[in-house]
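Structure (tokenized):
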């Protein structure tokens, strides 16, 4: 009888510990990649919204893109990359936008497309190889490349903002 009680106690404790253990998300690779993308997405959107429209034409040198073109470049690059992952050929048009409001709407639409691209993947489909440029890449590799590109462009946007006395979103005090 004591042996039976001991076995039941051990099983009950094991089940209780297992129930408290953190569960991995269903698609950990895609989930982690989307987390990094979401962080830079939020910073880019906040930066584009925060930069005053009168500074959208600012360029630190004659050889660098003005802020408006950096934002447009992010949107157009995302339309190409995320459209490819979704199997949709999209024609980017952010470069044609001339106002902050129009460009912000286009930027948000490009992020919506990328959100949908991430949401369409599982870890299994993320590994599928598709034609991209001159070769084959996995769908997840294309999205990671897009995230890396977004990070680079956010760094450029942040530098422009600082030169105009605007604090970039990632440097704001935490609330």
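Design, position by position:
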């Amino acid at each position: 009888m004591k042996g039976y009680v001991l076995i039941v106690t051990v099983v009950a404790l094991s089940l209780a510990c297992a129930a408290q253990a953190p569960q991995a998300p269903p698609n950990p690779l895609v989930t982690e990649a989307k987390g990094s993308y979401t962080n830079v997405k939020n910073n880019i959107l906040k930066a584009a919204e925060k930069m005053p429209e009168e500074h959208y034409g600012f360029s630190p040198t004659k050889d660098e893109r003005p802020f408006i073109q950096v934002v447009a470049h992010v949107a157009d690059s995302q339309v190409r990359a995320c459209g490819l992952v979704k199997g949709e050929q999209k024609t980017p048009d952010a470069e044609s936008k001339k106002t902050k409001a129009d460009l912000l709407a286009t930027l948000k639409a490009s992020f919506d497309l990328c959100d949908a691209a991430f949401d369409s993947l599982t870890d299994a489909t993320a590994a599928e190889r598709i034609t991209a440029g001159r070769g084959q890449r996995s769908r997840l590799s294309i999205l990671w490349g897009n995230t890396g590109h977004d990070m680079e462009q956010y760094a450029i946007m942040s530098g422009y903002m600082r030169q105009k006395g605007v604090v970039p979103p990632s440097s704001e005090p935490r609330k």
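Reviewer-requested clarification: The CA atoms of residues 50 and 166 lie 8 Å apart. Helices lie at 2-20, 28-50, 67-86, 100-119, 123-126, 139-163.
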